[in-house]
# Entry
Amino acid sequence: MNCIIVDDDDLSCRVIEEFVQKTNTLKHAGTFKNAVDARNALLANRDIGLIFLDILMPEMDGFDLIDSLETPPNIIVISSADRFAAKAYDLNVVDYLVKPISYGRFCKAVEKTISHYAPRESGKSQIPQGDREIFIKKGSTLVKLKFREIVYIEALENYITMATADEKFTIHFTMKAIESQLPAELFIRVHRSFIVNKSMIQTIQEKSLDLLVGKTEKNIPLGKSFRDGLLNDINVMAK
# Structure
């Protein structure tokens, strides 16, 4: 996985660079002392799969960088303070490491990224995407769901709620992790906190959309940065 380091601390950058060089699953694609240069590099190179990101930087901080990217790569925050962790997880970062970090803790975060967040290989299954199944934990049991049964997914801090026409399941997962496992032809991100089943969309307004949940409609917010992507993805007929 190609990765970059974004941190204005020289010592921290050297440590992370050494860790990256020792990790066979990572390829160092650049180190940037400010978020502006990093953002330009990300826009020019779409093959970056992971950012090791500091929060406190001049001109543009780490949160500003995340907000400025329509589809940010996987992000592992490496910060000298733990007070930003809650906000970072709200932005769906993979992990949050507090300096100084050990190589063991670094490896754990990287393996978490590769195992659960990296895009899965496609084209191996001949089963229609809508008929593919996942198992959701409900109490002490596992419930089988077909992808097409999922109406929407909502982010709740470090958890997500997965809603069908009849039930809701809350699991310890992030939006980035679940998004990487959902078939793109069926689902689309419409808000920082919502992924929806495209077949369930009934109407689209300027800042929201309505989904058919069973026999009722559910109003979902539509983020400004996601609206164009939604309209480009669906069939729109207009004069």
Observations:
- The chain has two domains: 2-117, 129-233.
- The two ends are 45 Å apart (CA to CA).
- Residues 15 and 171 are 35 Å apart (CA to CA).
